[in-house]
Specification:
CATH class of the domain at 76-122 and 151-210: Alpha Beta
CATH topology of the domain at 76-122 and 151-210: Rossmann fold
Strand content: 25-35%
Oligomer: single chain
Helix content: 25-40%
Largest sheet: 5 strands, mixed
CATH superfamily of the domain at 76-122 and 151-210: ABC-type transport auxiliary lipoprotein component
Length: 210
């Protein structure tokens, strides 16, 4: 059998090496992680576990403060979402925090969240848009929301996520992420609740947090 040309022989050896590498990496295939029992390693940034922990702790503080009393009619307080400022080097979707806080408060039965009012407009524009169906001959007017049905918020949720980075002994890096939430009485402008939760990371000085 004639010998293969050198170039072709090298090409076949390279292809075989790639195939062996792919087979060796079979044990590192993508895996599904149970977020409720996530024990995977953490980095210097924030993950969903940090947001969940911060939300639970801050909501617990709100509820334990004794200041979230029902409305005069006995119904739960109505909360609107203002602004959560991201003052970190991370690209954070602050809606993740506000959503977790809203869910925790709604589950408590003391607070409900309006999606018809927000600092940057309603999170659910459809609630207002359906009001434009009034007077339309295409819709049964008895099924269209009447005037004066929406409930105005009496609480506003705002806050900050702050990052503090420092060097510690041994050249390690310490990063503190400070979650701050404020719950304001819209009618009076007085803070009903102000809370803070700190999530801390310590890692190699070569580790970055973004």
């Amino acid at each position: 059998m004639p010998a293969l040309p050198t170039a072709r022989r090298h090409l076949m050896i390279g292809a075989a090496a790639l195939l062996l590498t792919a087979c060796a990496q079979g044990d590192m295939a993508t895996q599904r992680i149970d977020s409720r029992n996530d024990r995977s390693p953490i980095g210097m940034g924030l993950d969903n576990r940090d947001f969940e922990e911060a939300a639970r702790t801050l909501v617990r503080g709100m509820l334990d403060s004794g200041r979230l009393q029902p409305r005069p009619d006995g119904q739960p307080r109505v909360m609107a979402i203002s602004r959560i400022t991201n003052d970190t080097t991370l690209r954070i979707n602050t809606n993740e925090l506000t959503q977790l806080v809203s869910v925790e408060l709604n589950n408590s039965g003391r607070v409900v969240t309006t999606t018809a009012v927000g600092l940057d407009g309603p999170s659910d524009p459809l609630a207002m848009q359906t009001r434009q169906l009034r007077g339309s001959g295409e819709f049964n007017q008895r099924t269209v929301a009447a005037r004066g049905q929406m409930v105005a918020p009496d609480l506003s949720l705002s806050g900050n996520i702050i990052q503090r980075t420092n060097r510690v002994d041994g050249g390690a890096t310490r990063v503190d992420y400070v979650f701050q939430l404020n719950l304001t009485n819209i009618r009076t402008g007085i803070a009903v609740y102000q809370g803070q939760e700190v999530i801390t990371r310590v890692g190699s000085g070569r580790t970055v947090s973004w």
